[in-house]
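agent> Task received from the user: take the single chain below, predict its 3D structure, and emit structure tokens. No templates, no multimer pairing.
agent> Plan: (1) validate residues, (2) run structure prediction, (3) serialize to tokens, (4) report one or two observations.
agent> Step 1 OK, no nonstandard residues flagged.
tool_call: predict_structure(input=
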Amino acid sequence: MTEKDQGSTPSRQRKRFPGISSRAYEHPADRSALVALRKLSGFDTAFKALSGLLPERSLRLLYLSDSVRVSDAQFSHLNDMLRDACYILDLEKVPPMYVTQDPKPNAMCIGLDEPIIVLTTGLVELLDEEEMRAVVGHEVGHALSGHSVYRTVLLFLTSLALKVAWIPLGTVAVTAIVTALREWFRKSELSADRAGLLVGQDVQASMRGLMKIAGGNHLHEMNVDAFLAQADEYEKAGDLRDSVLKILNVLPRSHPFTAVRAAELKKWSENRDFQRIMDGHYPKRSEDKDTSVTDSFRESAGHYADTVRTSKDPLMKLVGDIAGGAGDLAGDLGGRLRNRFSGGQPGGKAGGGSATGDGGTTGEGKSGGTTGDGQSEG
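)
tool_result: status=success, residues=378
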């Protein structure tokens, strides 16, 4: 897509990311799921062939007949934002976008064959130009990641699973599936928030937009720093009972809480990964096929482990302390077992044979790698 194709130029110069892969901005948990799905060659294509089973055509006709399609003739400023967002993220085909009458601020990206973006009038009337630019970038990020396809796929599979819930333990299994899906949905929203920041390239506008979605169009009565402080208070406040209530509150939601989204986006904007993207160093779409599923899952697991370790939430701190204590216990038991099976005693001499200096024995049969207090470092 060339600049000429974009029509009007953006209000200020923004960096563009040619060939960028959605992996650049995806949350680790979102990325690992998507990498695995993309490796299932032909899976989404086969599912699209079954799209006649789904009301996608009906939805398209509904929006075409009962909403306003964004174009040069209608909501032209939104059309400029949409084309600009697609240009920045290098999305070749600009998805259709509609504005529908609904006082509740909302936006979504849906569809199997090709995604469509829907904005509500409540959202259009609430946000200023830069805030709206971040929202449009958010939805274009969903389209680039393929969230519209994979969300529909998984929702369909969930619906199918509900039909066999009469099978013994079927309800338990379905609940587990739905819970896992919602967890992925929430992480995919964090991914799209990052895409919105890459498009808008104005972290304050992104923060304001999320704050307005939470508190309405009273910007003179609100403060971004105070809003972010709410998220910090939410994370660390209370005791274990509050931690359980937080989990119960978020389980039925498809989106993270708005203050939490703002805090997560602010944290990412200060991360070196974001700066590397802005400097032009990011994974390319052409490399997606070579992405390792194992590495993606390992990164996702590492993220969750890091979240538990650094969390201020009472329950997460308890889990981290228990895990740390179990690790220390395992290390201590491991050391004792190694000493026993190697024929040695803590602080004593081991049996013959040679080893490296990492806690084994030297060729002279002396205990190696010991500290000053006689304990083996092995």
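agent> Step 4: summary for the user.
The first helix runs from residue 28 to 39.
agent> Done.
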